[in-house]
C-alpha cells in the first residue's frame, strides 16, 4: 500500500456520492456515512473547517415511493419530487451523527454563474462556518431545470470548494482512486497515486465509468479536480467504503489519488469567469495577438482581431479563438469592453483609430488583461 503525505490543510470540502450514501440504490444507509461523520467530527475538533457536499436525495426519496423504484424512465417532475422528498431524509440522516447543527444549502448553476448570487452564497457559507455549523450542500434538483443544472455533484463540489476558498477537496467514492485502466474490467489495473497535471491523457484513461444510481463517473471527478487544482486546491479521491482510509487521513497520509494543485493558481474571479460564466460569442484573433496574450501577458487589442461571431453586449463574457490555418483553437475567455457591433467596426484597426471610427474611446483594449483568462488546452 503506497501512502502519500498530505500537506496540512485548514478548510476542506468533502463530497460524498450516492453510491456511498445509498449502497443498495435506495435509502440513506449509515454503513459508510458513519465513519465519514466520525472523520468530520474529529477534523472539526482539531480546528479544521468542513463543508459537506452530499448526494443521495433521489435515492432516499425512492425508498418512500416503491411504485417508482422499478420505473426506468422517470419523468422530470417525478425525479424532482423524489429529490424534494429525499432531501429532508438526507439532512435528517446526516444531522443525527453530529452534536453541532447542520445547515442546508441548495444550489443550481444559476447561483454560480450569476456573480451577485455567487458572492451572496459565498458570504452565507462563510457565516455558516463562523456559526459553528456543518454546511451540507446539494444541487437544488427540485427547481433546477436541465439547462440550469450543474448536473453532477463532483463538479458542484469543485464550485463549492471555490466558493468556500477551501484548500482541499476530498471526493469520496467506492474505488481506491484513479486507475490507469478500468479496475472493474482489468484486474492488472494500477492505482495512480499522484497526478501532477491534468491533461488529455488523464481524461482519456477515465472513461465514462458509472454505477446505476450515481450521476458522475471518473470523468466528472477529473473535471472537478481540474477546476479545483487550477485555483490552487489540492483534490483527492478516496475509497469511503474503507473506513481505515479516514484514519490515515487524520495522520496526514493519503491512500488514494491526489491531483496536485497548480503552483501558479488563477484568481477565484478568473476561475469564476472561466468555468461559471457562460460565453455569449467568439472573438477570433490572428497568431500575433494570440502570442501576445499567451506569452507576453498582454491585453487583447482590436488590431489582432480578424472576426467576430455571435451577438454580445459590453461586459459580457466571450471566448477568444486563434485561427490557425482552417482550425479554430480556443485560447482564452474574457470580459469584453466593446459589444459585437462595435467590434465589427474596429476589428483589425489600431487602438488609436477607435475614437475616429466609433466617435468615442471606451478603453484601448478590447479585453483587459485582468479580465482575460488563458485556457490551457492540452
Ligand atoms: N443531486 C443528486 C441527488 O441528491 C445527486 C447528483 C450526483 O450524484 O452527482 O440525488
Summarize the structure.
This protein has helices at residues 18-21, 33-45, 57-62, 66-69, 76-95, 109-113, 115-130, 153-163, 200-206, 218-230, 244-250, 268-276, 287-296, 340-346, 354-358; strands at 4-5, 11-16, 49-54, 102-107, 134-139, 168-173, 194-195, 234-239, 253-254, 257-259, 282-285, 305-309, 317-324, 327-335, 372-374. It has 378 residues and is of the alpha/beta class.
How does this structure look, described?
Helix content is 36%, strand content 20%. The protein is built from 15 helices and 15 strands. It has helices spanning 18-21, 33-45, 57-62, 66-69, 76-95, 109-113, 115-130, 153-163, 200-206, 218-230, 244-250, 268-276, 287-296, 340-346, 354-358, and strands at 4-5, 11-16, 49-54, 102-107, 134-139, 168-173, 194-195, 234-239, 253-254, 257-259, 282-285, 305-309, 317-324, 327-335, 372-374. A hairpin with a 2-residue loop joins strand 13 (317-324) and strand 14. Helix 8 (153-163) packs parallel to helix 10. The longest helix has 20 residues, at 76-95. Bound molecules: glutamic acid. Glutamic acid binds next to helix 3 and strand 5.
Total helical elements: 15
Largest sheet: 8 strands, mixed
How much of the sequence is in beta strands?
15-25%
Q: How would the global form be characterised?
A: globular
CATH architecture of the largest domain: 3-Layer(aba) Sandwich
- How far is the N terminus from the C terminus? 32 Å
Number of discrete domains: 2
Class of the largest domain in CATH?
A: Alpha Beta
- The order of strands across the largest sheet is 4-5-3-2-6-8-10-7
Task: Give the beta-strand count.
Answer: 15
* SSE order: EEHHEHHHEHHEHEEHHEHEEHEHEEEHHE
Mean pLDDT: 91
What level of helicity do the residues show?
25-40%
Computed structural class: alpha/beta
Instruction: Tell me the radius of gyration.
Output: 23 Å
Low-confidence stretches: 209-215
CATH fold topology of the largest domain: Carbamate kinase
Give the name of the CATH superfamily of the largest domain.
Acetylglutamate kinase-like
Bound molecules: glutamic acid
Amino acid at each position: 500500500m503506497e501512502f502519500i503525505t498530505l500537506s496540512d490543510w485548514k478548510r476542506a470540502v468533502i463530497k460524498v456520492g450516492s453510491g456511498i450514501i445509498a449502497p443498495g440504490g435506495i435509502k440513506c444507509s449509515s454503513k459508510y456515512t458513519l465513519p465519514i461523520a466520525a472523520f468530520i467530527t474529529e477534523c472539526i475538533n482539531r480546528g479544521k473547517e468542513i463543508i459537506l457536499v452530499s448526494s443521495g436525495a433521489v435515492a432516499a426519496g425512492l425508498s418512500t415511493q416503491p411504485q417508482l423504484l422499478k420505473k426506468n424512465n422517470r419523468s422530470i417532475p417525478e425525479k424532482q419530487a423524489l429529490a424534494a422528498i429525499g432531501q429532508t431524509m438526507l439532512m435528517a440522516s446526516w444531522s443525527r451523527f453530529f452534536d453541532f447543527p447542520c445547515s442546508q444549502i441548495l444550489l443550481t448553476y444559476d447561483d454560480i454563474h450569476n456573480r451577485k448570487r455567487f458572492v451572496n452564497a459565498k458570504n452565507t457559507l462563510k457565516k455558516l462556518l463562523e456559526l459553528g455549523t456543518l454546511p451540507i450542500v446539494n444541487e437544488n434538483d427540485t427547481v433546477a431545470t436541465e439547462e440550469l443544472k450543474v448536473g453532477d455533484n463532483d463538479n458542484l463540489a469543485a464550485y463549492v470548494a471555490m466558493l468556500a476558498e477551501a484548500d482541499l477537496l476530498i471526493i469520496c467514492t467506492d474505488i481506491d482512486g484513479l486507475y490507469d485502466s478500468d479496475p472493474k474490467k482489468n484486474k492488472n489495473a494500477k492505482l495512480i497515486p499522484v497526478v501532477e497535471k491534468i491533461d488529455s491523457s488523464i481524461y482519456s484513461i477515465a472513461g465514462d465509468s458509472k454505477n446505476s444510481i450515481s450521476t458522475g463517473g471518473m470523468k466528472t471527478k477529473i473535471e472537478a479536480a481540474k477546476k479545483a487544482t487550477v485555483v490552487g486546491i489540492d483534490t483527492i479521491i478516496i475509497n469511503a467504503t474503507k473506513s481505515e482510509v479516514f484514519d490515515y487521513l487524520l495522520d496526514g497520509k493519503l491512500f488514494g489519488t491526489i491531483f496536485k494543485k497548480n503552483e501558479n493558481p488563477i484568481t477565484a474571479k478568473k476561475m469564476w469567469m472561466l468555468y461559471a460564466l457562460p460565453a455569449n460569442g467568439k472573438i477570433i484573433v490572428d497568431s500575433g495577438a494570440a502570442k501576445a496574450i499567451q506569452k507576453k501577458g498582454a491585453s487583447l487589442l482590436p488590431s489582432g482581431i480578424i472576426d467576430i461571431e455571435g451577438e454580445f453586449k459590453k461586459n459580457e463574457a466571450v471566448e477568444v479563438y486563434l485561427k490557425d490555418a482552417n482550425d479554430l483553437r480556443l485560447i482564452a475567455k474574457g470580459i469584453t469592453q466593446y459589444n459585437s457591433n462595435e467590434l465589427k467596426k474596429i476589428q483589425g484597426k489600431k487602438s488609436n483609430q477607435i475614437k475616429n471610427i466609433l466617435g468615442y474611446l471606451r478603453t484601448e483594449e478590447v479585453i483587459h488583461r485582468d479580465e482575460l483568462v488563458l485556457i490551457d488546452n492540452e
